[in-house]
Amino acid sequence: MSIKLSISSFIFLALLLAGCSKSDSGDETKKEEVSQHDSAEERDLNRIKARPELLDRLEIGQPFLIDLADRIQVPSRVQVDEERTAQIGSYVTGRIIEMYVVLGDYVKPGQRLARITSPDLTQAQLVYLRALSRTVVTQKSFDRARHLLAEDVIPLAEVERRQSELEIAQAELSAATDQLKLFGMQESDITELRKRAKVLSSIDIKATREGYIIARNVIVGQVVQPADLLFQVADLSYVWVVGDVPEQIVRDVRLGQHVEIIVPALSGAPLDGVIIFVSDTVNRLTRTVTTRVLVENPERKLKPDMLANMHIADTQHKTLVVPESAVVRELDQDYIFIVLSDGNFQRVPVKLGPEVSNLRPVIEGVTADDRIVTEGSFHLDSERKLAELE
Fold first, then answer.
1. What percent of the chain has pLDDT over 70?
2. Can you list the alpha helix ranges (DSSP code H) found in the chain?
């Protein structure tokens, strides 16, 4: 009896396990079918059948190859042209007693900027007058000695002694004249000093070149020294745009190359510039090479220290492109519609380069053989989104 019960129990357990296995297998099959159905629905989200009235608004074309030059964008800044600027200071230590210009004034060479009084200048003029007086006296003494020598009144040695004194006096006068010039006195000022023998208590600080006053670091009453920068005068008809080009692309940068300059503050058309300097060294910290561009600035719209972007064109090469109008964007991803058949389209993700003249270089996603929507992609994508909501 117990043996029969055991056999019955065994059969029941086997049937039970078989049923469970069949049930689990059925569940897995159902899940797989649901998953496949969901996947099919997900794929269908990028597929759209356009209505007849929408087809008339679409233009069909193909990606095509053109000669395109890459543009290297380098953050830059506007600077004064150092070849057209001058830093002006005082030649002597002294006190500023008058100011003749303010920031922004236009000056020409020789125009007065300020006036300074200096004890050093006064002392140098006194030295000059003493040297001038001694030169006059020794010159007369030498001339008289030569006359007496001709009359055989004095010996030759006396004439030679007086000649030596004259030469020393002339050397001292020359040194005193040079010192006055170093202190900023012009030849006309020295001539006036020689005629009138009157010491000038002050002297003008004058512009050394034509341009605009872009820096003034002095006020009336301030004591200044020769090492101090008092004024900066710059010709702003040309400026520099300076940028740091990454060393990986500096091979594409060369002297004389024309580049585009974009200044966000001006929000205007690109400016043309010419590369006039490429550094021979690499910055060890930033791994960049300093590049300088000369830009014409006739209206002085470009201001020193303005931010700019330097667009350097690379050599041209064949590039596959699509029109900007063919591209739709969603969640930071670019898409293009490919024609499957009449009225049926597939939206595919693509990787594109920056826009150049309303064209987008193709990196990956479509080929030259694909038929794509070149105009009306926005309307087609709107139709697809409506179908997705249904």
1. 86
2. 2-44, 52-55, 119-150, 156-182, 187-196, 377-389
Q: Is 48 exposed, middle or buried (0-12, 13-18, 19+ CB in 10 A)?
A: buried
Give 331-388 pLDDT, tens digit per residue.
889 999 999 887 889 999 999 988 877 888 899 999 999 999 999 888 888 888 887 7
**pLDDT (tens digit per residue) in 100-123:** 999 999 999 999 999 999 999 999
Alpha carbon of 5 to those of 10, 13, 17, 169, 324: distances in Å? 9, 12, 19, 147, 82
CATH of the domain at 54: 2.40.420.20
For 175, phi then psi, to 5°, come to -65, -40
Answer yes or no: are the C-beta atoms of 92 and 116 closer than 8 Å.
yes
CB-count burial class (<10 Å; 0-12, 13-18, 19+) for 125: buried
| End-to-end C-alpha distance for the chain, whole angstroms | 67
Give the Cα separation of 250 and 277 in Å (integer). Answer: 12
* Angle (CA) 213 308 104, round 5°: 10
Angle between helices 119-150 and 156-182 (to 10 degrees): 160
**Backbone dihedral angles phi then psi of residue 114, each to the nearest 5 degrees:** -160, 170
Distances in whole angstroms, Cα of residue 236 to Cα of each of 86, 175, 301, 310: 12, 39, 9, 19
Tokens 């309307």 -> residue: 379
Rg of the chain, C-alpha, whole Å:
44
- By DSSP bridging, strand 333-341 and strand 94-99 are unpaired
Query: Which structural domain range is residue 265 located in?
Result: 72-82+236-315
> Domain boundary residue among 315, 331, 364?
315
Residue partners of 335: CB distance under 8 A and separation at least 6: 46, 327, 328, 329, 347, 348, 349, 350, 381
The rounded distance, in Å, linking the Cα atoms of 147 and 142 is 9
Q: CA torsion angle for 164, 166, 170, 171 (degrees, to 10)?
A: 20
CATH number at residue 166: 1.10.287
Co-location of 298 and 243 in the same domain: yes
User: Rounded distance, CA 272 to CA 308, Å?
Assistant: 13
